[in-house]
Amino acid sequence: MVADQGDEQTDETAPQDNRIPPPANRNEPRGWRPGQAAARPVGSQTDSPQLRRRDRWLWGWPIAVITAMAVLGQVWGPFGVLLAGVAITGILALYVGSGVFPRIVSIAIALTACVVLIGIFASYSFGLLSYRPIGTAQTSSATNAPPNADYLRGGSARGTSLNAINIDRQVLRDAQLDGVIARGASMDNTVLEGAKLAGADLRGSNLHAARLRGADLRGADLSGVNLTEADLTDACLRGANLSGAVLEKVTATNAAVDDVVVSELQKRQAASWPSSSPASATACSR
Question: Is 65 exposed, middle or buried (0-12, 13-18, 19+ CB in 10 A)?
């Protein structure tokens, strides 16, 4: 009896073993006890973030980009295509990447898009990108031949559409072209001395080295036109729009420049630009 009591006392005072036995099933995580829910493995599907609402409409962005590039390509040609593509792509990257990209990456994307857009506008301003709408013909007639010079001089072309016409190196002195629409036209080295182009729409045209001495360009839209080395001596430019036009080495001695839309930077590009309009301009009085 004494021995049995001693054995019972020894069992009561002996420290209990609280160590968790190794799992019988190797697939069970260590430390798992029967009846305990197994921990979800890291990276399981239930731990992945829910799809953001904005991400559900990603399929529509390519359609928007393609549509914008197509529409602006028809309006502004290659200039419009690049403008739409870069701008919308940059916006898409920042919109979708918000909350995913680090801040430094978002800043880099925004800066890159800005630099590319500035490059596009600079290329357009210097005539490297055409303003001619995509798909327009190089000439105005179905036979791909430019209109007859007599037709252009005689006044029959007044107010007509001559978009993308090619009349390089033609002699069109005193041509009657008032109100003509000739966007994206090519008039490289064309002689237009004394020509009437009042109210003409020549946006994005190439008038490189064109001879416009004494020409009437009152109220003409010459935005984006390449006038490099053109001669505008004694020309009437009252109310003309020259925004974005290239005026490098332009000669505009004694030209009437009242109310002309032109920047100081453009004036500095010109070989000569009048500080004020002459008291009487012959081209403006005809």
Answer: middle
